[in-house]
Amino acid sequence: PWLEFAMRPVRAGTNVDEALVEIELTVGNSGTVPARDVRISTFLLSSDPNGTEMERLLLSPPSDATTDPVTINPGEGKRIDATLALLKSDMGENLPDTIRPIIVADARYTLEDGSEGRTSASFMIGVTPEEGGSGLDPLELSRSSMHENVGAELRGQPQHASRSLRHDGARPGPPGRAFCTAVTPDLFRGPTCLTG
Question: Could you tell me whether strands 2-14 and 177-183 are parallel, antiparallel, or unpaired per DSSP bridges?
């Protein structure tokens, strides 16, 4: 399979208790074989400078963050509409004034030889600056407001791995490939990434 992530933040902001991000995530297969038993997970982090929280969540995603398994045939995709929330109380004793939340998307699927393929990517979310400035402005935590002028920037390169699910000692097949973009309503933000 050749899996693609296209993530578009719809709205983002805060209320009294939470930081919220509404997204449309599409996982598409532009390969020539079906991606079977695809389990898609999404979750929200306040920040993760060392990658440890993201690594923990990728190894053991929360049960409510994963979709039911689906097959994505070549040329087709699965769209997920979600609202992701992060409690302000989980951001530590000294609540920062602003954040640029991070969304992690993860897709796991079964390859033809029984091994597991996995692609994950993370996106920083923020408010698109007025007057065409570059980058993304952070969300203010001190006041409740939702923004529709939001964007996403891909953080680093998508991670891809395969591991054997077989117990007969057979070597797993080659990993699939991944393509990842962050999409805003009118433009693409951040680099386009390919891994293989």
Answer: parallel
